[in-house]
Amino acid sequence: TFVVTEACIQCKYTDCVTVCPMDCFLEGPNFLVINPDECIDCSICVPECPVGAIVADTDLAPAQMHFLELNRDLSRNRQWTRISHAKAPLPEHEKWAGVTDKLGLLQR
Length: 108
Ligand code: SF4
Ligand code: F3S
Fold this sequence. Notes:
This protein is of the alpha+beta class. It is about 15% helix and about 15% strand.
């Protein structure tokens, strides 16, 4: 499966969702996740993300490993809804795009 990682937090550009043939993205307040049970590993979403947030589970950096479970957990969160059409990125996306260590800001 492919995994949405930390770079997405507080940016949420949503370019990724428009290309997914499985519509397997789910949206929360300031992050998206991929439902790992639905992703078919086509990889076409990867180059769409302006901040490189989408990574194959097999290529996750050690510090981002836990995002696999996080994507799975949040896919099952009933507050998170399917998203398949792009929308405007979050208002302060430019400010947050280069910031690492944003996990503490994740809103569920
Ligand atoms: Fe969707 Fe393909 Fe990306 Fe998986 S790899 S989330 S199926 S676009
Ligand atoms: Fe997030 Fe990148 Fe998609 S910032 S919403 S994974 S385009």
